[in-house]
Amino acid sequence: MRPEDWAQEMELREREAGIAEKQLQALRSGPGYSHCKDCGEEIEKERRAIKGVKRCIFCQERYERDFNRCHR
């Protein structure tokens, strides 16, 4: 295995482990809102498991897009 391949493999493993740890922490710390604070629709079950979630995925994407546009 070439050194750069090994480095990429290690980076991928570390990233996946970090994501898994964050997901586990979120599950341990309790759920987020059950309904979107912007549109009022129910937030998907998987998304509600993430602590601090306040918006459905569509409203969150719009919020982030608008936020990034204003803060460039």
UniProtKB/TrEMBL annotation:
<dbReference type="Pfam" id="PF01258">
    <property type="entry name" value="zf-dskA_traR"/>
</dbReference>
<keyword id="KW-0862">Zinc</keyword>
<keyword id="KW-0863">Zinc-finger</keyword>
<protein>
    <submittedName>
        <fullName>Transcriptional regulator, TraR/DksA family</fullName>
    </submittedName>
</protein>
<feature type="domain" description="Zinc finger DksA/TraR C4-type">
    <location>
        <begin position="33"/>
        <end position="65"/>
    </location>
</feature>
<dbReference type="InterPro" id="IPR000962">
    <property type="entry name" value="Znf_DskA_TraR"/>
</dbReference>
<keyword id="KW-0479">Metal-binding</keyword>
<dbReference type="GO" id="GO:0008270">
    <property type="term" value="F:zinc ion binding"/>
</dbReference>
